[in-house]
Amino acid sequence: SWQCFFAFxxxxxxxxxxxxxxxxxxSIARDTDMTAQVWIIGGYGDVGRKLAGMLARxxxxxxxxxxxxxxxxxxAAAASGPQIRGVGLDVTYADAEKLPPAAYVNLVxxxxxxxxxxxxxxxxxxxxxxxxxTYLKALExxxxxxxxxxxxxxxxxxxxxxTNVMAAALKRRF
Length: 174
Hints:
This protein is α/β, with parallel strands linked by helices.
């Protein structure tokens, strides 16, 4: 059965409360308890939108869909649920110090290993969906070089257990 992998309580403003605000990573971090956030990096597509909806609805989490194009992120967030927010974030140039030490699901290989390591060293929990061995090794090496209180879970996209749980939950829902 589907279980919430992130055990947090939802907090922070809803889309209706943010209607007239320009959302940035900084503003979202200020408005929400950072430990209760799940950021989906590269969440424009079907997997990201469905994951965002499941986390917000089933786990009652504050979910942020982040991507290079803020308008695409906002559209994906709107399609995923009223409590989900979208924000423009180009991970190629992102500053880890300006991002919250939240939970992240990374759906793109454009995220620099140094950024992942910096986030994990600050206490972020990161689930990596890539199956590319060279990218995974680079992430593993970067995090080992910069230890901290966070967590990096590799191979989530190819992990039979997690993939099966997500597939079963999606089948029941849709």
